[in-house]
């Protein structure tokens, strides 16, 4: 028998270039198994089309944010990200999502967890998946969230109000393996973690240009197999253990910039190729570009001045401010990381999950 309520209060929001269902933790079952079962039925998984739920048949639109009041007085809200698989009965909490993060602050104001300021509101958010911290600042004229504005981000039509997200330096080492380069599955790569475990791979080392469309890369079975071999070997080296059933690490293929950016990327998340790039994935790429001796040397074109890097992706670019310095042990360490995203409230109401199984399903042919 499955648990959970027959209907749940839900706010569907776009955060950056992703879309997800946002819930208050108090509105969901406390037991993780019952919660995950409810979310699978809510999103319509497992089903490649997710026809019977909120999901959009793609990992970027099959996401959930669970927001709650923290036990730390220095944090405004806790944010748990859950990736709901599309065609499998799986819910993963092993990664953050920097795109859905863009709407967590507005959601907290909408639900009354944080009082809006007159003009702008800043919300300090703890990303429960990893314990990392970020502060999101967004416009709240007259004490209400304003989603309209002139900020434009690649991969999203139109414009919206800017959400400035500044990430605080986490406790995880920037180079999880302790080295700027590793040979994994016969390929020289750089493993970084600037909020998201990511493996940087020169595209030409995999026999591709790095300018292919996501669909062309997904259709390349030999490439997918090789990328997965790298991922499975990288997991233990990065301290992630066995990642066969995990959605991390992500893998970003690097190529010289096609336009005026610092580098061109194609990112596997981990089995589908991202139509753009995740915020935290871009943070990892940006930091990796700045690490001396990384595989980005000879590929990336770094700006002469300033910390803003333009990361090119299949549908445009993402500008990110990043810095890398030396930690107490002399190893490379991430400094300030900040990005501008946008978010929008799509609908607020009640979602009715697909009913759970309460009795055996009979074979109609018997």
From TrEMBL:
<dbReference type="InterPro" id="IPR007400">
    <property type="entry name" value="PrpF-like"/>
</dbReference>
<dbReference type="Pfam" id="PF04303">
    <property type="entry name" value="PrpF"/>
</dbReference>
<comment type="similarity">
    <text>Belongs to the PrpF family.</text>
</comment>
<dbReference type="GO" id="GO:0016853">
    <property type="term" value="F:isomerase activity"/>
</dbReference>
<protein>
    <submittedName>
        <fullName>4-oxalomesaconate tautomerase</fullName>
        <ecNumber>5.3.2.8</ecNumber>
    </submittedName>
</protein>
<dbReference type="InterPro" id="IPR047687">
    <property type="entry name" value="OMA_tautomer-like"/>
</dbReference>
<keyword id="KW-0413">Isomerase</keyword>
């Amino acid at each position: 028998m499955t648990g959970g309520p027959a209907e749940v209060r839900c706010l569907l929001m776009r955060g950056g270039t992703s879309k997800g269902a946002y819930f208050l933790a108090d509105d969901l079952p406390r037991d993780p198994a019952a919660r995950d079962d409810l979310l699978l039925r809510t999103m319509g998984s497992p089903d490649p089309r997710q026809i019977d739920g909120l999901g959009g048949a793609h990992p970027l639109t099959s996401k959930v944010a669970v927001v709650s009041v923290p036990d730390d007085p220095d944090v405004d809200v806790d944010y748990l990200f859950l990736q709901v698989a599309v065609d499998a009965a799986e819910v993963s909490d092993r990664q953050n999502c920097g795109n859905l993060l863009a709407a967590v602050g507005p959601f907290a104001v909408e639900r009354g967890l944080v009082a809006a300021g007159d003009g702008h509101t800043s919300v300090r958010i703890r990303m429960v998946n990893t314990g990392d911290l970020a502060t999101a600042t967004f416009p709240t004229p007259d004490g209400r969230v304003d989603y309209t504005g002139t900020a434009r981000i690649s991969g999203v039509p139109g414009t919206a109000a800017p959400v400035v997200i500044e990430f605080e330096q986490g406790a995880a080492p920037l180079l999880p393996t302790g080295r700027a380069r590793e040979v994994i599955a016969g390929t020289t790569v750089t493993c970084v973690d600037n909020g998201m475990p990511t493996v940087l791979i020169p595209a030409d080392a995999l026999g591709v240009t790095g300018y292919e469309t996501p669909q062309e890369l997904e259709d390349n079975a030999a490439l997918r197999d090789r990328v997965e071999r790298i991922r499975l070997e990288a997991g233990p080296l990065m301290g992630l253990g066995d990642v066969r059933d995990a959605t991390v690490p992500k893998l970003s293929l690097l190529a010289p910039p096609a336009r005026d950016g610092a580098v061109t990327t194609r990112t596997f998340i981990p089995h589908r190729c991202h139509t753009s790039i995740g915020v935290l994935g871009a943070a990892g790429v940006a930091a990796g570009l700045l690490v001396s001796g990384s595989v980005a040397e000879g590929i990336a074109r770094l700006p002469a001045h300033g910390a803003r890097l333009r990361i090119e992706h299949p549908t445009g670019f993402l500008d990110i401010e990043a810095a890398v310095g030396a930690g107490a042990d002399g190893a490379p360490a991430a400094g300030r990381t900040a990005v501008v995203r946008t978010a929008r409230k799509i609908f607020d109401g009640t979602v009715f999950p697909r009913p759970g199984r309460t009795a055996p399903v009979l074979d109609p042919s018997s």
